[in-house]
Amino acid sequence: MTPIKGIKMICVTYELEAQAIEVCNKKIADDNEIRFSKMKAISKQQQDNLNDYEVKIWNVSLDVDKQMLKLYLKNFGLIKNLKFNVKNLYYEVVVRFNGK
């Protein structure tokens, strides 16, 4: 683990560019969409995220109308990312707003 600007990251190096690209194209785990990426992309993303802010909403019912919740949350700002994570019998909703 290597901290970069306060964020813990896994750093991996390869001898060939083709090897790095191959790894970046694979998911880290089958049930997770997160992938490895090149440092250039991470640095750019960190700059993009400097003005963003994130809100977590706990204990959201599993039968919530996700589209209606998204429409409601848009009243608070432009949504950059919206995730619904199942925690026991509820969702934990993570909303990343494009902040300014």
Characterization of this structure:
By secondary structure, this protein is α+β, with helices and mostly antiparallel strands. It folds into two domains: 2-49, no CATH class; 53-97. The protein contains three helices and seven strands. Strands 5-7-6 form a three-stranded antiparallel β-sheet, with no helix packed on it. Strand 1 (2-4) and strand 2 (7-9) form a beta hairpin. The longest helix has 11 residues, at 39-49.
User: Topology as H/E string?
Assistant: EEHEEHEHEE
- Sheet of most strands: 3 strands, antiparallel
Widest sheet, order of strands: 5-7-6
What's the overall geometry?
globular
- How much helical structure, as a percent, in the residues? 25-40%
Number of helices, where a helix is a run of at least 4 consecutive DSSP H or I residues: 3
Instruction: Please state roughly what percent of the residues sit in beta strands, choosing from under 5%, 5-15%, 15-25%, 25-35%, 35-45% or over 45%.
Output: 35-45%
Number of DSSP strands? 7
Helix/strand-derived class? alpha+beta
SSE topology:
Elements (H helix, E strand, L loop, with lengths): L1 E3 L2 E3 L7 H8 L2 E3 L2 E4 L3 H11 L3 E9 L4 H8 L5 E9 L2 E8 L3
Antiparallel strand pairs: 1-2, 3-4, 5-7, 6-7
